[in-house]
Each structure stands twice: as C-alpha cells, then as structure tokens.
TrEMBL record:
Listed name of the protein: Uncharacterized protein
Region feature (Disordered): 243-266
Source domain of life: Eukaryota
Organism taxonomic ancestry: Eukaryota, Fungi, Dikarya, Ascomycota, Pezizomycotina
A Pfam family annotated for this UniProt entry: DUF3723
C-alpha cells in the first residue's frame, strides 16, 4: 500500500492551509479522517512538520494509523520518541548537517532501523558489509561517508525510524492501558498530565504543587517517579488489571436479521 500520497496531501495542506478542504477531497474516507485528526492535533502536527523536509524519514510516516495513537493518552511519550528519532538521524548520524540528511534515502532508513552497531557485533558487521558493497548511503560522497560511518558505529542505542515507532507504539499500548485503568477517566488528559496532577514530592509541599500550572519536563523528581511507574507497568502488565473489554457476544459477528418468509398459502 502506498502511504506517500497521504503524506504529500498533508504536506501541501501545511504549506497552504487555505487549500485544506480541496486537498482532503482527494482522499478516501478513512485516510481523510486520519489526516484531519492529525491536522486538528497541533502538538503532533508540529512534530510531524519537522520531518516533512527530510524525505528518508517522511517516507515512513503512516498517517492511516495515527488515530490509534491519540486514544492511548501517551502524547508526551510518543512525541519524545519522534523528537529522539529526528535528533538521532540529524545529529548522531548526519552530524547536524540537514543537507546531508536530505541525501539519505528511505532504503538507508529501512536498512538501519532497529540496529545498534556500537553494542551488537552482528549489526556492526552487517552495516559495514552494506556500506562496503555500496548498498548503503548510495547518494553520499566518499568524504561525507567517512564521517557518517564513524558516527554511525558509535551509536549505543537502537536506531529509530517510523518503522520502529509503529512497533514500539503497539507495545506501549499494553502498558498504557494498565495505567489508564487506575487513573481518573478524563477525555482530554494524557497519562503524564494526570500523573503530574497527582504527584506529591517527598517533602509533601502541597502548596508548591498546587501552584504549578502544568507538567514541567525539567522536574527531576517527577520524571524519576513517572519512569518508575512505566517500568513497573512494563514488568508486571500481565498481572495488572486492564480496562474491561467487550463481551464475547458483542465481539462476535451477529447473524443477519432475516425477514420471516410468508407461507405460499397466504
């Protein structure tokens, strides 16, 4: 399935919002709804906008699944993932050179995603062989390639992409459902924002917390407490309660309603 058309429509709308309605008509119903949901979510839209001028990352965007992510109330975590992905490719691999990054192709991303060359010998050897064979970074000149290779082999974390984003986001949903089950049900609140409102520092300075307008990512105590909760959910989510699911009778397809057949004698 070709997803690039959806992304191109989204890109054109962001460039010229006055053409929104006209451009959306070119999409089928489900795709139109997905693009509209992203457009109506300013924080996510801003994060996606930063990737529109980076073809190798932009090509991996799947707008048809974005509506699922909004329902998990994990905005901060998912946005952090997207920002980390861009920073990793721009700074850790391309050395902060946006023009160099724009020369990477989607095949380069597909080859490197999920790899960790600094810590996994098998990944290191695979990437080295791909570069040596000329299959990786085909559009990069030898001088630039030398720097890219050096930086690439020093990365000590998994190389992210929208491919890994979709995989990891689906895993995150399992943990998020556990936390959502024990938090107040508020439609417009994320998990992090609800945890922030419930957070009490070690000195129980309630007045301090009451005067905080919103979540501050620089608050070390809260960040550590939030991380501990996520780690606990990851370790024990199979044992934790989850939101009630629909009964089997509702999940099964119902037989069609058949009109009674009139007797031929009638």
């Amino acid at each position: 399935m070709d997803y690039s058309f959806d992304v191109e429509i989204y890109r054109q709308i962001r460039q010229d919002p006055s053409k929104r309605d006209i451009l959306l008509r070119g999409l089928r119903n489900h795709r139109r709804r997905c693009v509209k949901q992203l457009l109506d979510h300013p924080t996510f839209a801003a994060a996606f906008d930063t990737l529109l001028d980076i073809p190798c990352l932009r090509d991996g965007i799947r707008l048809t699944t974005i509506h699922k992510h909004f329902s998990w109330k994990c905005d901060e975590e998912l946005l952090s993932y997207i920002n980390k992905m861009k920073s990793q490719w721009l700074n850790d691999i391309a050395g902060g050179n946006i023009e160099l990054l724009q020369m990477f192709c989607s095949e380069d991303v597909a080859t490197l995603q999920g790899k960790c060359p600094s810590l996994i010998r098998k990944d290191y050897e695979f990437i080295f062989d791909e570069i040596l064979a000329g299959r990786l970074f085909k559009n990069i000149d030898s001088e630039s390639l030398s720097g890219v290779q050096e930086r690439l082999f020093s990365i000590d974390s998994t190389i992210l992409s929208f491919g890994t984003f979709l995989r990891d986001a689906n895993i995150l949903e399992c943990y998020a459902s556990c936390l959502l089950h024990v938090l107040p049900s508020k439609r417009d609140c994320t998990i992090t924002s609800q945890l922030w409102k419930a957070f009490q520092p070690a000195d129980h300075n309630y007045e301090f917390i009451a005067n905080l307008p919103s979540y501050d990512s620089n608050d070390t105590a809260f960040t550590k407490a939030r991380q501990r909760l996520w780690i606990f959910a990851m370790q024990h989510y199979l044992e934790l309660p989850r939101p009630p699911q629909r009964s089997d009778s509702r999940l099964r397809a119902k037989p069609p309603r058949i009109s009674p057949v009139k007797s031929w004698k009638a």
